[in-house]
């Protein structure tokens, strides 16, 4: 526009409004001088215009001309045109009091076995005002296109708007500089499911504008969640908004191979070019005091402007490649600019340089889940003169760990628009399904493969041999008749190696030896000192087999075929609990806690250890490594030892139990309400309390939900019984 105005002004000098002006003819030598001067000025203006166009096109990239959106495979130009009436309503500014329980409808998300929210992306539209002017000067940027494409390819995405928990507009608000604030807000309000922004998510990385540069998007947005790159403590709604990084285009344009942690050429490096004068003066003073340990870079004044100059930094005429130079320093300064959020932070992390962040009130990216103390040093701005002393006090080993953590943070959460988008959705997902949320370790610990502890599957005995068989451990108190029937039935199982009876009654002696059933395998009675349910899981020396069958003294309904088949399944999955009746844990939204569900469900997350196979290793873990006071709690309440074992195994293995055969309940015909503990009226309530207690102690919900069970291959087939390996599989 400035260049055009120059042409107009020159034209006005030559011609007045009423025709050619009456001006004297110049001498030839002066005419040549002025023509030359004008040409130089014109070329300078053109060069300056090209520079600014290049600079503002560097981020975000416009994709108006060529790109296609992967969601609907249409060119941006083919998107339907929507005109915004001038009288269209404008959303409210934004409620700073919004929290997930006040401005977000979690019931729209519902329960699903995968614990994944479903995200709907609005179809692409081109919004213009009444006279046809677009609401954005850039349209759909390459960065926002990448973000929407990544979400559409993820497990979060759904194209069924009725199933959606979260809605993302296709209106690009990443860069506020390119937006018309009022018209963009009106376009948001026109979205069919807007409903005052409820359950809507907006992504913005460059908020505010001159002169004040607000730290949150200025577009009125009602109750919509904001994933913002530059929040301050004044604008960030904790537990509602998500603080995200400012994406750096250099992430994909410059390949920085990972560098091993350790000492670098420089101790501190400053590479930002537009920092406040007071900061630069202080950095120059530190440079004078510490010499070569600190490298203070600035923009290169001797290079032609353009994209190439963006990747260069200079110090006293010496040119350095950026961001490559960042890898030559242990610590890299990240100061606040006009905005709190800086793309420099991403560049520094990519280089494996520990960021020294000085931006008071800045909410660090993904700080809800990331432990920034492990990857950065945050120093108040007023402590800038003491920066060198503070950093020198950090041990070398800690610096190396921080360098390693910084690089991993970039790889996992900063490296692409996909990484930023998926991390944002996972944080929101964890809020909605807290029992399935990622742990602190999963968010902050880099995955490390310790090869010394990994055995090749070519030499690992994945399936234990059949020959050793299993040891049956029967817990009993004084039900002699049903105990003897259980022993008689178990003794018929071909793979039984030994029978151990855990006698839990200290007031009564077990029957005389002559009265016990005659069986073909060793049988031993183990008397306990106290009546505790945990005694059934004690690692007795008499257990010599890998496989253990825990079974109660009233489980007389299981056939020998069912037991043998359960053992065969355990051999295929020796790290699992393999049992018969399955149970399920559910989240009670009204009560806000877990509850125990019995019998007729399509899903299973536990199996009852009243009859279950498991590896004897878990006896040691249950007895000596059970977290918190769970074991004592079980013994005090005389309930839930099976739930505790399910928690323990699932927490160690990360796997669900395996239910075998169709049996859904254990029913003892001879048992009365007095004899049967599980028949107590308070039993179900107390078992729900157990689940909530154990989840609190474990600080997570380790139980995994599955929707399948294991049955013999020919179980339902219409074949002669003699052709079936397990013909006598019991009923429900």
What's the arrangement of secondary structure elements?
Blueprint: H1 2-14, E1 15-16, E2 19-20, H2 28-57, E3 68-69, E4 74-75, E5 81-83, H3 100-103, E6 119-121, E7 126-128, H4 142-152, E8 166-168, H5 181-189, E9 201-204, E10 225-228, E11 242-243, H6 250-253, E12 266-270, H7 277-290, E13 294-296, H8 307-310, E14 312-315, E15 318-321, E16 329-335, H9 344-350, E17 354-358, E18 377-378, H10 387-392, H11 396-414, H12 417-432, H13 440-444, E19 470-476, H14 480-490, E20 496-503, E21 523-527, E22 547-552, H15 560-572, E23 578-579, E24 582-588, E25 593-598, E26 606-607, E27 611-615, H16 617-624, H17 630-637, H18 641-653, E28 658-660, H19 683-698, E29 709-710
Parallel strand pairs: 5-7, 6-8, 9-10, 10-11, 12-13, 12-16, 16-17, 17-18, 19-20, 19-22, 20-21, 23-28, 28-29
Antiparallel strand pairs: 1-2, 3-4, 14-15, 22-27, 23-27, 24-25, 24-26
Helix pairs in contact: 4-12, 9-11, 11-12, 18-19
